[in-house]
Amino acid sequence: MAIGNKHILFVHDKGQMCNNIIQYSHVYAWAREHHVCTISLRFAYKYQYFRICHTFWHNIVTHAIVKALVRMHILPITHFEVPYVPEAELEKKLTSHTIMAVTGWHIRFYDLFAKYRNDIVRLFSFDAPIEKHVQHLLAEWEQDENNILLGVHIRRGDYKKLMGGCYFFNDETFAKAIHQFQELFPDKHLVVVVCGNVALPKRFLRRQLASVDFVFPEGNPAEDLCALSHCDYLLGPPSSYSLVAAMYHDVPLHFILYADETFTLDDFLSFDTQLRRFDDYFMRPPQHD
User: Fold this and answer.
1) In percent, how much of the chain has pLDDT > 70?
2) Distance CA 55, CA 222 (A)
3) Would the CA dihedral through 13, 19, 21, 22 be positive or negative?
């Protein structure tokens, strides 16, 4: 597909940080393949933790101008709100205007995402102070080869109502999952890095799992994300936060689907596999085998 060099896509949407990363990355991957310019309005002014935020055109002025042009109906806007749309139809919409704003969650180019994943990781690499902070936080645990680091993301909040609360798990569920993981590595000492969008059950987890060392980063969203990305394995309910954490170093990731589930190491999947399955977790309620 031949597309002019002046083709520009301004990508924006509301929602949480890692949803924005996944959304923009799919558009960016398609744009890289077709030599199209993309600018993220979200990372032009919000979540100022990543390399992309310091690149050309990513600033509050660009954000303000483009938003004003959209409000005045000068700049066309194309919405991607329907899931499972074939790539050919997505491309048709992305090329419907030479310069336009793009919004909506359902833009998927999995093969191109995989092709340009290294570029995406560099684009969303963490600012140096964040990496330095996390390296210091985890240094004593990473230097001992007998340790294995499990990153656990406790996601609650809106999950109490989302899809009938099927992914809203209590403290006992997380403790059980950590214990299951510990049994998979009987010759290793388990260190668990716990992050979440709620108050973390520190005392409960330490009481239930006395032989485990816990690290609770409790930093800003990027610091916690960076800490999870440095773990050996990741565990938690389906969430774009865990998914993006896995992206950086292709950390094996298992999504907890039921409170009473059991799992093996084979259930910890690569980032690419989980990315391709991710929509299904939220479009189709989980079913017991």
Assistant:
1) 96
2) 18
3) negative
